[in-house]
Specification:
about 40% helix, globular, alpha+beta, about 90 residues
Length: about 90
């Protein structure tokens, strides 16, 4: 089991690094994001001039599934957030 875990850590680290690199290249003027210490997700926070509905529509047109932050805020917040998964 340990060799498999070590292998998968490398696989997911590479996926995370690729996503972080793409975000830095393409989104630095539009959003900020977390630098995960673990897990499978990166949280994006968009600036006030970005509408989450537009991001969701564009992502869907590009066949990219994103989960809006509103799904994770019990208090109704999260309107400027999305969760991106690099696990699959």
């Amino acid at each position: 089991l340990e060799p498999h875990i070590e292998k998968m850590i490398g696989v997911y680290r590479a996926k995370c690094d690729a996503m972080l690199s793409a975000l830095a290249e393409s989104c630095s003027s539009l959003a900020t994001w977390t630098q995960p210490d673990g897990g499978f997700f990166i949280w994006l926070t968009f600036g006030d001039g970005i509408r989450l509905q537009d991001v969701m529509r564009f992502a869907g047109e590009e066949r990219v599934a994103v989960v809006p932050g509103t799904s994770f805020f019990a208090d109704g917040g999260g309107q400027q957030h999305i969760r991106l998964a690099f696990s699959n």
